[in-house]
Amino acid sequence: MQANIRPINHLWTHDDMTLRPRKQPPPPSQMCITLGQFLEKTLPQSTSLLGDLILAGSVGMLVAPRGCGKSLLAMTIGYAIAGAKLLEPWGIGSGAEVCLIDGEMREQGLQTRFRLLNAKNTKPNSVMRAGQNFHIISRDAAGDPIGSIDTLEGQEAFDEIIPYSAKLIIIDNLSALTTSGREDAASFALIKQWIIRKRLSGVAVLLVHHTGKSGAQRGTSVHEDLLDYSIQLSPREEPGKTAFTLRHTKLRDHLPELKGDFDGAFWTADDMLHFRIEAAEKSVRPEDEKILALRQQGLTQQKIADAVGLSKSMVQRRLKDITAMPRPDQDGAETED
């Protein structure tokens, strides 16, 4: 057996060539305690992987329509953690080990993206850390389907490959790494148990998933039961860039600095992948004119959302902002080119 590998054996774990018994569950008398006992427990501080959002053992989901930049953002999040880089609006990565499980990209395309991402990093120490701490499991690179995370056999196959030292596992994406194509509660049950086992071992999981026509994550809401946070991207027009509006649609912890919308964009220039994200301003955006025109025609918010490629909730927010902001013909202000 290789070192630093989680084996499929349920009785033993393997770390640095040392076999040791897997932690057994506590007796029933310790599994149900009183409130007084619970309040007296000394608990370890949460271990940050990326700011206060991604913690050791946390579970998150990144959802977006196709072509909106969700895989690029997932890679960037993983790279920031592995390379101990600052990534707004979340904070500084811890330098922990990350494992990306990619289920859909060609090996050449994946390598190109990582080369562009790595080229933007100007700090040699961070480049070195990312190179050592970011692990990639790619079906195309391996030349093998490996398995699917909605079967026990597939989970065991991935558990044999995932480095034991990885503190974050990125699943990109949920549809590509499952077998049936169904997205109901029953088909997610095995995945849910696998995620729970990761959480109990202190490993964080980030699921990348597609949105449906409504703009929300596709499939059953059971997907959201375990989530500590959920990040939703909605497409935004910005010429020559993969632009989006980012919103944290679920935050289990109190993180007021992450409330509200953020405008982000990826673009390639000078053989580097550039990324910018900032708090969304209440200003006119390219899609606003179309949203307002369709609303004046009497279309429902859902039909407007379908027409412009945004979620219904995003259209609702844009309409609220459009009607609240002063128009140029009202106060004589000039608009920026």
List keywords for this structure.
single chain; 337 residues; alpha/beta; Rossmann fold; 2 domains; two-stranded antiparallel sheet; globular; disordered N terminus; disordered C terminus; P-loop_NTPase; AAA+_ATPase
Show the helix and strand layout.
Elements: E1 12-15, E2 18-21, H1 28-31, H2 35-40, E3 48-50, E4 54-55, E5 59-64, H3 70-82, E6 86-87, E7 91-92, E8 98-102, H4 107-119, H5 124-133, E9 134-138, H6 139-142, H7 152-161, E10 168-172, H8 185-200, E11 204-210, E12 229-236, E13 242-251, E14 261-269, E15 272-279, H9 288-296, H10 301-308, H11 312-324, H12 328-331
Parallel strand pairs: 5-11, 5-12, 8-9, 8-10, 10-11
Antiparallel strand pairs: 1-2, 3-4, 6-7, 12-13, 13-14, 14-15
Describe this structure in words.
By secondary structure, this protein is of the alpha/beta class. The protein folds into two domains: 48-279, Rossmann fold, CATH 3.40.50; 288-326. Helix content is 33%, strand content 24%. The protein has helices spanning 28-31, 35-40, 70-82, 107-119, 124-133, 139-142, 152-161, 185-200, 288-296, 301-308, 312-324, 328-331; strands spanning 12-15, 18-21, 48-50, 54-55, 59-64, 86-87, 91-92, 98-102, 134-138, 168-172, 204-210, 229-236, 242-251, 261-269, 272-279. The strands form four sheets. A nine-stranded mixed β-sheet has the order 9-8-10-11-5-12-13-14-15, with helices on both faces. β3 (48-50) and β4 (54-55) form a beta hairpin. α9 runs antiparallel to α10. The longest helix has 16 residues, at 185-200. Residues 1-20 and 327-337 have low confidence and may be disordered. InterPro entries: AAA+_ATPase, P-loop_NTPase. Residues 56-238 form the AAA+ ATPase domain. This is AAA+ ATPase domain-containing protein.
